[in-house]
């Protein structure tokens, strides 16, 4: 993730590292005269079954791959939100918005125990933060995309992608613009908080 317009000495951010987040948010806040909107969209995949038998031996999901996904997808949004909220409260502006990008994988998807857990945790944070931050007029909402045309999805084999599309009632992959429309609704609707909008073509998988 890069800072606005590539400005500032700290051009890159590792959302999983507390020091990096604190420095980045501080610099961006200073450059922009304060920030009051955050979209938590950083995410990674490390798909693998928790344990898989192969010719007499068992291949386990490495703890590192579990932790990496949790660190980026769940701890990262927590750290980003914490630092931004602290600055909003300190300034006393009584206005703010956090949008968390989740996933329909919270319903369960083979090989994605780490990813699904991270996104389910993020949904829980969305609802909890909405309650905690309402007194400061800080809204918190989320969007849960289904199968969307992103670089992450483009790495899926065509066979696997076809199987996933077969489970989508609208019969196609979604677009990033369609996710943006959901995010824009959350931004524009001042009475929306504590909810996660599914954008998945009616998907049931």
Secondary structure blueprint with pairings:
Layout: H1 18-32, E1 37-40, E2 51-54, E3 57-60, H2 63-91, E4 96-101, H3 113-133, E5 138-145, H4 151-154, H5 158-165, H6 176-188, E6 196-199
Parallel strand pairs: 1-4, 4-5, 5-6
Antiparallel strand pairs: 2-3
Helix pairs in contact: 1-2, 2-3
Question: Can you walk through the features of this model?
Answer:
The chain is α/β, with parallel strands linked by helices and 205 residues long. 44% of the residues lie in helices and 15% in strands. It is built from six helices and six strands. The chain has helices at residues 18-32, 63-91, 113-133, 151-154, 158-165, 176-188; strands at residues 37-40, 51-54, 57-60, 96-101, 138-145, 196-199. The strands form two sheets. The protein has a four-stranded parallel β-sheet, with helices on both faces. The protein has a two-stranded antiparallel sheet with strand order 2-3. The radius of gyration is 18 Å and the shape is globular.
């Amino acid at each position: 993730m890069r800072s606005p317009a590539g400005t500032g000495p700290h051009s890159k951010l590792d959302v999983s590292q507390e020091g990096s987040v604190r420095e980045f948010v501080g610099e961006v806040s200073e450059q922009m005269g304060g920030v009051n909107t955050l979209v938590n969209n950083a995410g990674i995949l490390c798909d693998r079954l928790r344990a898989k038998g192969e010719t007499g031996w068992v291949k386990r999901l490495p703890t590192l791959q579990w932790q990496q996904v949790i660190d980026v997808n769940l701890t990262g949004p927590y750290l980003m939100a914490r630092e931004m909220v602290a600055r909003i409260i300190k300034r006393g502006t009584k206005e703010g918005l956090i949008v968390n990008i989740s996933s329909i994988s919270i319903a369960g998807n083979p090989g994605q125990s780490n990813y699904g857990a991270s996104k389910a945790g993020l949904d829980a944070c969305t609802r909890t933060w909405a309650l905690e931050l309402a007194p400061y007029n800080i809204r918190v909402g989320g969007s849960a995309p289904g199968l969307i045309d992103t670089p992450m999805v483009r790495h899926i084999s065509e066979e696997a992608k076809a199987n996933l599309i077969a489970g989508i009632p609208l019969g196609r992959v979604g677009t990033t613009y369609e996710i943006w429309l959901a995010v824009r609704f959350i931004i524009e609707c001042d009475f929306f908080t504590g909810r996660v909008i599914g954008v998945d073509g009616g998907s049931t998988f």
